[in-house]
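Q: Hi! Curious about what Transposase looks like structurally. Here's the sequence.
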Amino acid sequence: MLNDAELLKLFLPELLIEHFEIVKVEEENKIVHIYFDEKNTAPKEFSSLLLQSKGFVPEITVDDFPLRGKTVKLHIKRRRWTDTKTGNIIQRDWNLIAKGTRMTQDFAEFLKKISRY
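A: Let's find out. The predicted structure is below.
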């Protein structure tokens, strides 16, 4: 039997399920809005630094695969950290959106493939 995280991975990008928390889900006018906040886990590539979470960068909104005939909008807030020694701002470099679009990579690739037929 699938647990909640495994079930969500069937419908949402795996990257989001692993590194973000769902904070709210709303449905209005056949649009499902899913809100994500990045988990407060510092990037592994900066594990040698002493980092302190300093809130979030501005939220981005991207389109994802429709679910049950409803448009899906993902609202994503990425976290930022401050290196307590240098004061430098650190954040992960996510490839959440397909270049030149406001869609997830998977959704953009899917649309690109079906447009060839």
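A: A fun detail: The helical segments are 4-11, 14-19, 105-114.
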